Amino acid sequence: MKRTITGIKGLDLMLKGGIPKNRVVLISGSTGTGKTTIGMQFIYNGIVDHNEAGVYITLEEDKQQIKQDINAQGMNLDSINDRFRFIGGHIATIQRFKRKTKANVEDLVNEVEEVVHEIGAKRVVLDPVNLFLMLFDSDNEKRDALALLTEKLKKLNCTTLLLCEVKEQSMDISREGFEEFVADGVITLYNLRCGPSFYQGIAVRKMRGIEHHREIRPYEITNEGVVVYQTQPWLPPEE
Ligand SMILES: Nc1ncnc2c1ncn2[C@@H]1O[C@H](COP(=O)(O)OP(=O)(O)OP(=O)(O)O)[C@@H](O)[C@H]1O
Ligand SMILES: [Mg+2]
């Protein structure tokens, strides 16, 4: 199976070569676990190291602020302008647009498709998938919307990361309870408390079609992005 190398070395090793190409992977974690950093590394490394254009869809944070924060982690988004698109906007604005124009999920997916075509993107990140799903009312609509978006991105030959916010200390993988079933792969980020400190661990929970490592490995968010350590599985430090 062909792979998409994330460029986060330790993670590619856990995956024994990267994410299967044209698949959809859920990255789930509570607040501050590095979801946006991983999403940006995936897009940035794709452009710089593999000449694969990328689209980052954000529905939450201020784009300028994300650019600034990501820049501090060594990724200059202005330097990759021609192969990168940063789209989306605040959820409230999109809600208004959706109501005003009576846009349905097909219209929203078409907007994404247009941008993917424009730059020939091979990598897409949706940050966070939770807010995208808030655009729809019933559980059925939410599930159908996610299925439509992910099927479309697969047809366009994109490898996609869906960043998913979960509640702190919860053992849930997703917020709605179905995202992990729509996705081909699931990577979870843990913020584990041990005494007075928190330790971060990452695990590949599923990855359809490939063999991968299964243990929790330690990682850190650094000024060069997320670094996953291979040396040992995650173990709480001795008191
Ligand atoms: N330049 C940096 N050097 C080291 N660590 C950093 C740097 N920038 C951010 N961090 C760490 O990364 C965390 C934020 O990471 P990120 O925004 O990727 O997480 P997230 O899971 O997307 O969070 P959110 O729940 O807010 O969406 C910060 O709380 C901080 O601990
Ligand atoms: Mg984030």
Overview of this structure, please?
- The chain has 239 residues and is an alpha/beta fold.
- The protein has a domain at 28-188: P-loop containing nucleotide triphosphate hydrolases (Rossmann fold, 3-Layer(aba) Sandwich), CATH 3.40.50.300.
- 35% of the residues lie in helices and 26% in strands.
- The protein has eight helices and eleven strands.
- It has helices spanning 9-14, 35-50, 63-71, 91-101, 105-119, 129-134, 139-155, 179-182; strands at 3-4, 19-20, 24-29, 54-58, 84-88, 123-127, 159-165, 185-194, 197-207, 217-222, 225-228.
- The strands form two sheets. A nine-stranded mixed beta sheet has the order 5-4-6-7-3-8-9-10-11, with helices on both faces.
- Helix 5 (105-119) runs parallel beside helix 7 (139-155).
- The protein is globular and about 60 Å long.
- The mean pLDDT is 94.
- Residues 35-36, 127 line the site of magnesium ion.
- Adenosine-5'-triphosphate binds at residues 29, 31-37, 69, 72-73, 165, 221-223.
